[in-house]
Amino acid sequence: MNGLETFFSDATTFLPILLRGVVVTIGLTASALVASLVMGMAWALMGLSKSSAPRLVSRLIINTVRGVPIIVQLFYVYFVLPELGLQMDAFIAGALGLGLAYSVYQAENFRAGFASVDPALIEAAEALGMSERKIFVRVVLPLAVRVALPPFGNTAVMLLKDSSIASTITVAELTRAGQLLAVSTFKNMSVYTLIALLYLAMSLPLTFAVGQLERKFARR
Amino acid sequence: MISLKNISKSFGSTMVLKDVSFEVARGEVVCLIGPSGSGKSTILRCINGLERHDGGEILIDGQPLSPSTLRAVRGKVAMVFQRFNLFPHRTAAENVAEGPIHVLGQPREAALDRARALLADVGLGDRCDNYPAQLSGGQQQRVGIARALAMSPRAILFDEPTSALDPERVGEVLKVMRKLAEQGMTMVVVTHEIGFAREVADRVLFMDGGRIVESGPAKAVLANPTQARTREFLDRVLNPL
Questions:
Q1: ipTM of this predicted complex?
Q2: Quick check: is A11 in a domain?
Q3: Whether the model pTM is above 0.80
Q4: Residues on B contacting A at a C-beta cutoff of 8 Å
């Protein structure tokens, strides 16, 4: 059998196992993405606050989280928090840890978006008598999102790839499933080629989807 | 309808308004003229609370302007901006209907229908579904005027509404404003268009250095100014060479 035939025969055996990992990777990435958006919006809004205390806390969180490697953050959530009495399932620890790590990048994306909104448009809305909440929802947010979307797409793809770090805290996502296969079969080439292709099969549609969103929001 | 009593205002240590008092009666058109930095725009921004005045009192329909009455006042006094300030992510009709829907709580379809009618009134009946970036400056400013009208205001403040326009586009906006004046709208207009002030305004206030230097019937002030500073300004504006 030549190399290509071996690869295809391995693929039929390995794919069902790896696809279970793909499902976990997608679930983990989606959960971490939502967590990062919620926390990131919180940091960004605190950063916009009129009083200095929330601004300071926001800066502190962003600089601290950004300065610690993601793998250390995951270890902290999964191994250290239980010692402090906060035990959680590996998947949840992974989603929260990745969410926190990525929240600071989301916060910076949002901040750039908010900073891009022309204050004159906020004045126009004020002059119409709009409430602060309405101004945020109707004017500031849609215009900020438009600017934040392209970097957001970048962040989302990075998060998808970095979800593989959760393999180090026993989450049975794609990379972990592949490692287990590779050490038990010694078929490194087939396994890691399949893993790479499967990540691409997820990241390319994600990039495309964000591109579509950009187009939708960019309508003049 | 609008009454300012001894208004003062500083930015830091710079006093930009010094003891400014005047009244605007219902249906009256008042033009504020004067050099840049004389405080004209600041006055307008104080009247609808975009800037907070430091001293004195502003009354709108007898109601004093304060943080608690701010939103009620803004319902009565609409504003048209020099740089239009249209919402770039909404169509012309959506821009006009934004206030009625989200401030006055009108039903969406009814508000959009009225928005289209108002846009037709300012000559933009065929532009309702265009985004601001697809419109010329003059068209955008007419959308801005329709957006102000949609709030059914008792008065409209115009902050240099034609200063950002191509010379060829100024007329189309001034015509709409003249029509409003003829319909009895109360208007306070900051402008450099002396011709418009002469033709349309009931009264002209000339400002310099944060004070009202001279005021009176438009034709009198513009044709025979009594103050040397007013004469100097008008001479420079009317005979720039």
A1: 0.90
A2: no
A3: yes
A4: 48-50, 71, 74-75, 78-79, 81, 83, 85-89, 98-99, 102-103, 131-134, 147, 151
